[in-house]
Amino acid sequence: MNRKTFYRFTAPSNLLMLTLMVFPIVVAVFMSFHFVTFRNIGSPEFNGVQNYIYILSDPKFWQAFRFSILIVIVTVPFQLVIGFIVALLLDQVQTRLRGILLAGFLLPFIVVPVVGTMMYKQLFQVGGLYAWFFELIFNQSFVFNSTSVRTLILFQLIWYATPYPLVVFFAGLQTLPETHLEAAEVDGASKFQQVFYVILPHLRPLLLMATMILIMDMYRMFDTILVMTEQNPIYHAENLMMYNFRIGMQVQRLGRANATAVITILCVLVVLIPWLRKTYLQVMEKE
Amino acid sequence: MKQVRNPYGRLAMWIALALFFVYSIMPFFWTALQSLKTIRQAFARNPLFFFEPTFKNYSDLWLESSSQNLSLLGIIVLGVVVTILLLAIFSDRISIPRWLNNTVIMLLIFFLIWIVPRIVDTAEFYNYFVNSVIVTTGVIIISMSFSSLAGYALARFSKIDGVIILIAALAFRALPRMAYALPYYSLGQLTGFHDTYVMVILVLVAANQPFSVWMLRAFFAEIPKELDEQAKIDGLGPLAAFWRIILPSAWPGIISTALFTLLLAYNEFLIVRVLTQKKWTLPVAIAQFTGGEAPGHLTLAAAAAVSATVPIIIIIMMFQKHLVKGLTGGAVKG
């Protein structure tokens, strides 16, 4: 395919991404240096880096920042490990049950996130099943407070996203050549050694992809936190996206909100750039 | 891996799988149960498992209080659903073309959505459902036609600018939604496009582009290049070759990608919330229920949650293979 045909084919998609993603980011950067509310959207007032100074000196911002990082650090390893173990176990099932199990495992991941969170939350609300278990075990009723809501958010996110690495690893296991494992077994490798020295190296490229996508998705998680906290500040469970949303849509300071958006983009670039570089090298190498 | 033979090992394995399965679907099971209870039953101190189910929550959710013609509605819905099922099941046996069959099914579904509010008084929730259908359909049609062209071109063109576009798309996938939703909020307010389907659909298509371009590129790369050359020898131009030769052999990949596009559009909360005033889709409408303080909201919210999940469950049952294939994004060959 020559260059001219290539650009004709990709024109609609490129144009769309250019106008609907590059352009808004330029607008966001522009607005982040201005004082903008709903009254003066048409005529923003330039105010230099004041928005950034305000945000970076807002303790609420740093609280949200810490919670965002906490979410990524806690949930991603659990999602990967649980996903890997369940994928290994599911690989052992050879009967028709496999499909049924897989469908059930997938459900949390593909249901509407708002709905999934609501359902998970209902288990802990008054009259809920897990709230009842909790009361039986700890002999006190389950209360929604800062600690419990934050913990619940972490649990819900693990429940929600574990199917993704699970399915990725499961599909990866299907392509593992049987001969590799047989050779390892002949050499006297135990099951654990087979997992560590044969299966894990085979899954490494997938592991990297799944980890990156999970990190990015957990970082920009919004729906779960909105539904769990109902935007109630007493739970101190705001992450960067919630903070951004509140500043923009409720406090209606669009300049500050855009400054926050710019900061969140800069933060994600820290993990993104090495990965993009690696992908770039990979794609170039393949061609 | 070889099957574990040790009986204790196998027992432990089954227990672990069963526990994880129960844990995965428990919220769905429990919410479905709650949605069939009265408020008093739902708030019972000891959770109720056996009770006389009531469908009041569902009728409150979907219908205005003074609804008649319910039996007429039942007959029509049943008739259309049975026709759709028959068409779907026997599509291979009857001698009409596949595309005609599928078009008839789609038209029947739209007819059903159109006819219901004309027979009974539907509640607000029905409008949100219709919004969801409109937005999702729009996003799938536009996004798939753009991204299949781009995905194919990117699979066949490997110069530096192609790779740069790919990497840029990957970067866009990582962007926090707020970064591009907010500027569009301002622009929508200025131009009067706020709270229109067009705006929501276009922004969702853009949000979906990077991901579907990558996925389709992987699927198109698996189609042998010899097909292109054959088409060239037959005297077809690039577009004709794509339309007549490449596209038909790429259907499985396109279905996988379309499924994920559907999920993205149907599930999206933030973009729709920011860009609309009243034209909410289901996720935004449902989030409203959770904000309410009235106790009646618990069972009503449960009914809403189940209603929004049923289409997803149908999809997972029909297209499980495509979903698994799509999640690995062509990263796994074989």
Summarize the structure.
The complex is a heterodimer of chains A (about 290) and B (about 325). Chain A is an all-alpha fold and about 290 residues long.
Describe this entry's structure for a reader.
The complex is a heterodimer of chains A (287) and B (334). Chain A is mostly helical and 287 residues long. Chain A has a single domain, classed as MetI-like (MetI-like fold, Orthogonal Bundle), CATH 1.10.3720.10. Helix content of chain A is 77%, strand content 1%. Chain A contains 13 helices and two strands. In chain A, strands 1-2 form a two-stranded antiparallel sheet. Chain A starts with a helix and ends with a helix. Residues 330-334 of chain B have low confidence and may be disordered. Chain B is mainly α. Chain B has helices at residues 7-35, 39-42, 56-62, 70-89, 98-119, 124-156, 160-174, 177-191, 197-221, 226-233, 238-249, 251-267, 270-275, 282-291, 296-327. Chain B contains 15 helices and no strands.
Task: Throw out a few tags for this protein.
heterodimer, A: 287 residues, mainly alpha, MetI-like fold, two-stranded antiparallel ribbon, 2 strands, globular, B: 334 residues, 15 helices, 76% helix, 0% strand
Q: How much is the average pLDDT of chain A?
A: 88
Task: Estimate nothing, just give the exact number of structural domains of chain A.
Answer: 1
The SSE order of chain B reads HHHHHHHHHHHHHHH
> Using DSSP, what is the number of strands of chain B?
0
Please tell me the CATH architecture of chain A by its name: Orthogonal Bundle
Q: Helical percent range of chain A?
A: over 70%
Shape of chain B: globular
Just give the CATH class of chain A.
Answer: Mainly Alpha
Averaging pLDDT over every residue of chain B, what do you get?
83
So, the CATH homologous superfamily of chain A?
A: MetI-like
Structural class label of chain B: mainly alpha
Oligomer category: heterodimer
Q: Using CB atoms under 8 Å apart, which protein chain pair has the greatest interface?
A: A-B, 114 and 111 residues
Secondary structure tally, helices of chain A: 13
Which percent band covers the strand fraction of chain B?
A: under 5%
How many DSSP E strands of chain A?
2
Reading the helices and strands of chain A in chain order gives: HEEHHHHHHHHHHHH
Strand numbers in spatial order across the main sheet of chain A: 1-2
